Every structure is written in structure tokens, then in C-alpha cells.
Amino acid sequence: GITKSLTDVFKNVTGNAKITEKNITKALADIRIALLEADVNIAVVRNFINSVTEEALGEKVLRSVSPQEQFIKIIHDKLVEVLGSSSQELKLKTKDTLSIIMLAGLQGSGKTTTAGKIANMLKTTQQRKILLCACDVYRPAAIDQLIKVGSLVGVEVFTGDKKDPIKIAKEGVKFAKLNTFDTVIIDTAGRLHIDKDMMEEVQKISKEVKPDEILFVADSMTGQHAVEIAKEFNTVLEISGVILTKFDSDTRGGAAFSIKQIINKPIKFIGISEKIDGIEVFYPERIATRILG
Amino acid sequence: LFGGKTLDTNALEQIEETLITADIGPAISYDLIEKLRTKNIGNIEDAIIYLKNELKNYIFDGDIGIEKGQLNVLLVLGVNGVGKTTSIAKISNYYLQKGFKILLAAGDTFRAAAVEQLTKWSQRLDIPIIRQHDGADPASVVFDAIDSAKAKGVDLLIIDTAGRLHTKVNLMDELRKIEKIIKSKGDFNKKNLLVIDGTTGQNAFIQAESFNNAVGINGIMITKYDALSKGGIVFTIQKKLKIPFYFIGTGEKIENIEEFNKDSFIEKIFS
Ligand SMILES: Nc1nc2c(ncn2[C@@H]2O[C@H](COP(=O)(O)OP(=O)(O)OP(=O)(O)O)[C@@H](O)[C@H]2O)c(=O)[nH]1
Ligand SMILES: Nc1nc2c(ncn2[C@@H]2O[C@H](COP(=O)(O)OP(=O)(O)OP(=O)(O)O)[C@@H](O)[C@H]2O)c(=O)[nH]1
Ligand SMILES: [Mg+2]
Ligand SMILES: [Mg+2]
């Protein structure tokens, strides 16, 4: 990985030998390749390399006792700085009123499964009374899937007329209020960021129920276009947080860095298995190490 | 001194951006840029023509080799959410148009409503489906499906499997078991089709390599090409693994399937 190759770059720099601009340039070139191999978007990589170059060539590294470690620390810390965020918890209201969470994202990113995971998490950690709302009326058996997920977690599922997603969301919220639920989680159909009609639909759902959290659910294996996709969802919806799924794969997960850098919304959770407890809080340090490889 | 022109830094950066953004990956992109530097090419248009020709060396068209009048078995596999089940519906429709007699096997006995999902597609297409209860052993479904396919004189049996990460040893073992069962049922024409998501980055190569090492992959289908990601990982996969790409998924409807064509695929990289 990058730590090994950086070790190679700097291995002739020992004792009183001075680290030079030449070997830092080589190290930065290696980091650039590592980030691209990790699927970090090229524009994001360019910005990142530019922003660390100055620091890397500065006093701190060139005069440091252990320049290699200092250099790696700068890279790692800069990544963590971008990835991290102070607000990683779900911002929900108190349980004496209704909180609404809406999930949106590309086809197959893991929304329906994540809806179950969030329900399970809030049920067990906050003893919330949760209603799942089935707004995917397109995918064959999507509603069946959410019903099954609901029964696995032990929460109710609202399906409404199974025809009009906006109406289902609206009726779902009404139903929740009437039946003293404190949390509604709205699952929506997978959609392309470039599908004007479908993006308009999810915007309408959002405007109708005004969610407390609008979570963009993205596959952690997404390539260069993670930026385009996230940008569009963030333009159309006021995304309040990001969930990256399938982090139990061996993907480096550079999409995490790309998405955070470009839309600057907190990455709140990662998906780490197919099971209902397969969700955990996002730790920037761990993901930074993983992206660097 | 040499009479030729070379592209300026700006132009090379633009070209590199096009290649990388297409998910071609840094290794192949850098190779191409380095080759380009050694040529007497003074403008971007000519550079692109050169690159298109170079890229043709990396990929190839391939025929799936499925003929009517005999039992063909298509085992569909891949990681979670890539579009396997939907692609099976599309491939079924594709072969229905060619007059094939088709049978489906609901081999995903794990994921919530996976059997219901494939069943709904089978109903829309009026194709029979072999399925068992949730949590059944997928190998058992496959066993029954092949018996049924032979008995009914089916041309094409398509087996759906649960999404599985190639990093999960127990799930890959399950896949190996399914592969073994199929092989033990006779030497009919069998193809393992890997489905990869067109929006996936470099991990798609690792997926292809892992599944190929586990059970062998005869062909690949890349889905969600309509998301406008360019699927450039195809070059790495074909260069290193020599596996043909049979189909491309271009949407969520039954007719959103095309045969893979290397020329138009390369054209789209630069469009
Ligand atoms: N290994 C793993 N699998 C996951 C994770 N999250 C979701 N999945 C799987 O990914 C696949 C797709 O999940 P879904 O929940 O159906 O995805 P979706 O976004 O609702 O799909 P659409 O509604 O079609 O857009 C399923 O096989 C899930 O079990 C995760 O964190 N890890
Ligand atoms: N836009 C687009 N969506 C697609 C395409 N192929 C499949 N999908 C969508 O991707 C989502 C996942 O499709 P599935 O067929 O359930 O994927 P899968 O691989 O069987 O998923 P698991 O069984 O959970 O692993 C669905 O919403 C499909 O409609 C495609 O070519 N383009
Ligand atoms: Mg769903
Ligand atoms: Mg499936």
C-alpha cells in the first residue's frame, strides 16, 4: 500500500540526510496514484495534492527529525480533516413529537436494507416507536421487501395506496401522528441523478413531509461519478447526511472522500453487513487509512 | 527539431481526466498517456483518434454461445444490488424473442422478498419458475431446477443467486457448492454470468477476479450504463482476465438490454 511505497521513497533519507523537494514530489505522485486507485475523484485528488504540497514542502517536513513520518501524518490528517464532521448523529426531535427520516439514492445502493437498519438502531438505542413508509411503487416486490424488513426488525410498515409515492408519504405521516409513532422512515425508489422526473418526484416527497433528516445512501464502491451523483442529489434535496453502504467489501472507498469534499455534508453511518444490525457510526480515521491503502 | 508537435500539458491533463473519469483506472490511463507522449500528435482530436485505436487493443467482442434446441444453463452471480435479478428478466425477454423455451430458478433464498421479486418478473413474462421456501438451501433449488429443465425440454434455464461480496468466504463457498451441483447434473452448455454495476469503480476488477478464481466466469454483463458512468473498468477486466462482455444494461425496463459492442463502447468513453 501507500505506506510501503512512501517508505521506499524516503528510505534513503536517514540520519542527517535532508528530505528534498525531489523525493517529496515523488511521494506526492505515489499518493496521487493511490487515491485514484481508491476511486477518489480526479478533481478532488488534484485539489488535495495541491493543498498538501505546500505543507509538505514547508518547514515542518524539511526540517523534521523524522520527515517521512511527518509527511505521512500531514497526508493522513488532511484526509481525516475532510472526511470528519462534528455532527454525525441523526438530528431528530424529542420523542414527544414526530421525526421524519427520508432515504434517497441510486438504484441498488442499499436504501431499503438501510431503512431497516436505522429502524433497528433507533428502536434498540432510543426505544423509538418507528413506522416504515413504503414509497417505492416501481420495483417489483419492493413493498414486499420493506414489509419483510419491517417484520425482521419488529416495526410496522405503512404502504398506503401503493401507487402514489407523494400521497403515501403524506398519508404515512398522518397515520404516524394518529397512532403515536415518534419516527417515520421513508424508503424511496432507486433513481438516477439524471432522471429529471424521478428527481422531481423525490423533491416533491421531501417538500410534502419536510424530513428532519434527508439521507443520501450511496454504495461505497462507486467510482469517479460519485461526485456527479452526490452533487445532483444535493442540489435537488437538502441532504443532511450521507450513508455509505457495503463497506464490508474490500473497496478502498474513495467515494467517501469525493462525496464529502464536494457536497460537504456529514457522513453519518456506514453499512457493514446485510443484517439489520449491519450499520455503524462513520469513523474518519479508519476510512482515511483504508482509502490510502 | 523533430518536425512533429506534441500536446501541451493542458491538453494531456484534459485527456487524462477523460480517461480517469471513465473509471479506466490510473494504470491503463498512465500507459496511454505515456504512449501518447511519444507520438507526433499536435492536437486533441488526433490524440483521441489515436487513443480510441489503442483502446481497441484492450477489449474484444464475444459471443455468449447459447443455441436453441439444447439445454443451456446460465448461472447469474455478482455482489449485492448490481442488477442480477432485473438482468435475468431482461435476458429472459431477449431469448423469448428468439423463441427460446425458458425456465427460471429462484436461487436467492436469503434476501427479503428476493423470490417474490423474480416471481413477479416471471409472471410478467409468463415464464415458469422453480422456487422453494425462504431460507431453503440454494443448492437444493438449483438441483430441482435442472431436473425440471431437463424434464420440460427447456432451452434456457437461468439461475438467480443472492448478492454476495467476494470477500465473504462462506458465501463464496456456497457459490462453489452451487457450481459443483450444476456440474454434477450433466455436461450441458453452462455459462457463468457475472453482473457488475456500471457505476462501480476499481473494485469491479477485484470482483471479476475473485469470482473467476472461485467458480470461473464465462461472461460479464455491465448494468446501469444509463447512469452515464462509462464503465471503464471493462478495459482492465478484459486486458487481465480475457473475459468477454455479453450484455449491457441500459435502464430498469425489460427491453433495456443491449449486446456489448466494443466500438460503440469506446466511442462513448470520449463522447
Ligand atoms: N454486504 C452488504 N450488503 C448490503 C449492505 N447494504 C445493503 N446491502 C445489500 O445490497 C443489496 C441491495 O439492497 P437494497 O436495500 O435492496 O437496495 P435499494 O437501494 O433499496 O435498491 P433499489 O430500491 O432497487 O434502489 C441487497 O442485497 C442488500 O442486502 C451492506 O452494508 N453490506
Ligand atoms: N438505471 C438502471 N437501473 C438498473 C439496471 N439494472 C438494474 N437496475 C436497478 O437496480 C436495482 C437493483 O436491481 P436488482 O435486480 O434487484 O439487483 P440484484 O443484483 O439482484 O440485487 P441483490 O439480489 O439484492 O443482490 C433495481 O432498482 C433495478 O431496477 C440498469 O441497467 N439501469
Ligand atoms: Mg429499495
Ligand atoms: Mg437479486
Report the sheet with the most strands of chain B, covering strand number, pairing sense and barrel closure.
Answer: 8 strands, mixed
Total number of strands of chain A:
8
Number of helices of chain B: 10
H-E string of chain B: HHHEHEHEHEHEHEHEEH
**Helix proportion of chain B:** 40-55%
Low-pLDDT residue intervals, each spanning 5 or more residues of chain B? none
Largest interface: A-B, 45 and 43 residues
Distance between the termini of chain B: 35 Å
What average pLDDT do the residues of chain A reach? Answer: 92
- Hey, roughly how much beta strand do the residues of chain B contain? 15-25%
Question: Can you tell me about this structure?
Answer:
The complex is a heterodimer of chains A (293) and B (271). Chain A is an alpha/beta fold. Chain A has helices at 2-10, 21-37, 42-57, 59-62, 67-83, 111-126, 142-153, 165-178, 196-209, 226-236, 254-263, 284-292, and strands at residues 99-104, 130-135, 156-158, 183-188, 213-219, 241-245, 267-271, 279-281. The termini of chain A are close together. Helix content of chain A is 51%, strand content 14%. Chain A has twelve helices and eight strands. The radius of gyration of chain A is 22 Å and the shape is elongated. Chain B is α/β, with parallel strands linked by helices. Chain B contains ten helices and eight strands. Chain B has helices at 9-21, 26-37, 44-56, 84-96, 114-125, 138-152, 169-184, 203-215, 233-241, 262-269, and strands at residues 72-77, 102-107, 129-130, 156-161, 189-197, 219-223, 245-249, 257-259. Chain B has an eight-stranded mixed β-sheet, sandwiched between helices. The longest helix of chain B is centred in the middle third of the chain and has 16 residues, at 169-184. Chain B starts with 8 loop residues before the first helix and ends with a helix. The interface between A and B is large, with 45 and 43 residues. Bound molecules: guanosine-5'-triphosphate (GTP) (2 copies) and magnesium ion (2 copies). One guanosine-5'-triphosphate sits between chains B (78, 80-86, 108, 111, 114, 163, 223-224, 226-227, 249-252, 256) and A (107-108, 139, 190, 192).
